């Protein structure tokens, strides 16, 4: 069961958002139609039975669905804000390390600035058009190693500890923010069980609403389509927020682009 949930989450995350939207609309419409058919069958078989409990069931199911949608949306919105904050923090840390490279020996300072310029150039990309590649991630980590090697060489030569600390501390912060951004942006996502539960509750709610339509002879196609589009839109918004490199709700990368431009001007 756990493997099934994990596989479902990975599969869902790999699907294009447009495909997710269309499939969600179709699933909601199918659930409404199924509920309406069940309601009509029940109405024909039990013409004189009162259905006072249907409204209560619909209200309870929609309330549970609203809670789950709000919980999931808040989860992804918080992570979206976290990605924005990490970007700004990383930009500030990189610029600080670049400026404090002057505390190193002249040749090492020049080398540190070159590596940081390359690092910023790698980090300056548009996630909507350029994928995050393993090659770029590997090169970023290699730059970390090369920069820290400069610190280690100064330490072995018993370089002024106060000066060395001025560069080592922001460099350590740069490395920490890199791994935080990779984990939060590329690895953290809504777990598969939550996606399965969200779709299960959504479809169950649509079946109950369709059942109420069937019981009370409701045949409004416009209402059914409006419900399908509404719930599909909310689910796709949640999926969009959950993805750091796809969709329209992407973190604005202009702070990193501005830093890249500024470092080029300084050279």
Task: Tell me what you see in this structure.
The chain has about 270 residues and is mainly α. The protein contains 9 helices and no strands. It has helices at about 1-15, 15-45, 50-100, 105-125, 135-155, 160-185, 190-215, 220-240, 255-265. α2 packs antiparallel against α8 (about 220-240).
What is the oligomer described by this structure?
A: single chain
Radius of gyration: 27 Å
The SSE order reads HHHHHHHHH
User: Main β-sheet, in a few words?
Assistant: none
Question: Hey, roughly how much beta strand do the residues contain?
Answer: under 5%
Structural class: mainly alpha
Ranges with pLDDT <50 over ≥5 residues?
A: none
Number of helices: 9
Mean pLDDT: 84
Shape: rod-shaped
